[in-house]
Specification:
Two copies of one chain form a homodimer.
Chain A lengths: L6 E3 H8 L3 H9 L18 E3 H15 L4 H12 L10 E5 L2 E5 L2 H10 L3 E6 H14 L10 H5 L1
Antiparallel strand pairs in A: 1-2, 3-4, 3-5
Helix pairs in contact in A: 3-4, 3-6
Chain A binds a DNA duplex through α2.
Chain lengths: 154, 154
Amino acid sequence: MSSPVTSFRGPQVCKVIGITYRQLDYWARTNLVRPSVQDAAGSGTQREYSYTDLVELKVIKSLLDAGVSLQAARKAIEYLREHLGEELGSANLVLQCADSLLTYSGDQIVDLLRRGQGVLNIVALGPVVEELDATLVALAPAAAGAEPPLAAAQ
Amino acid sequence: MSSPVTSFRGPQVCKVIGITYRQLDYWARTNLVRPSVQDAAGSGTQREYSYTDLVELKVIKSLLDAGVSLQAARKAIEYLREHLGEELGSANLVLQCADSLLTYSGDQIVDLLRRGQGVLNIVALGPVVEELDATLVALAPAAAGAEPPLAAAQ
DNA sequence: CGTCGTAACTACCGGGATGTGATCCCGTAC
DNA sequence: GTACGGGATCACATCCCGGTAGTTACGACG
């Protein structure tokens, strides 16, 4: 029995995340998210993204939809990339000025607001990952039977 | 005894808020924040901003510093403008997708995070107004003895 | 080998936002 | 009336971002 597909080609990624190919291309070329399975090597080759890449892309898309600039999203993803091993399902990615951090309770956020000096951008990662997984399942035929590793691991 | 100055000219506003004249000009011309005391009428005239204008400008600046786009800030300010009469010192301006709202407790924010679908941008208005007032006091000579109405009212 | 489909790549363009330098215009002082 | 300072306005340039369309190149197929 063939193993589930765990890599995704560019156009599939666009469909799953809800972005244009141009955005994906620009984000790859400017080193925001390069495909970690297989990067492109010129015309005719293909980019292959991992599930983790998709999580990052999904977070970026959520931030952009919320009105956060691409520049700020870049910084946040750099931080997230260093903490992907942690339990994301219950974490919140918090952007505070140029810093990012993960919080795991509402109290932590309230505390940040009280001690902070203005603005927080908060990404609840649970819902983001859930929506990603749901989209992967819904588009499974189109994505060649791709199986969300997080869902499978649970 | 002369009454305290309660309006601010363009360059003073730039100094207080920490933005360039170009930004102030662009924001006025594009109807983000027009001076409510006296708008410009061509070269040689002067814009005069009220304290409320300064609060709005300060919130915008805080949002931009946090990486929020000007477009998203526009929406937020439209909402804030309709609720300025409320107790801002203890309120949090929360941006959720295209909607904005004011919350007054950490519990409300935690609840929004649980029920929401991704990203919140939160402006703690207390610290923003406090920093504005502190800057006005510190620059009082430059701002011709301007007195922060909120501080005076408290 | 030629053709085709697919995806990557490239170039141009436009919109948003802002920097920079120059010019315009008003109010004030002499 | 002239000069000046301050602020508004204008024009051009730059950067970021991404849309659009055309070109390039690879692998599959006959």
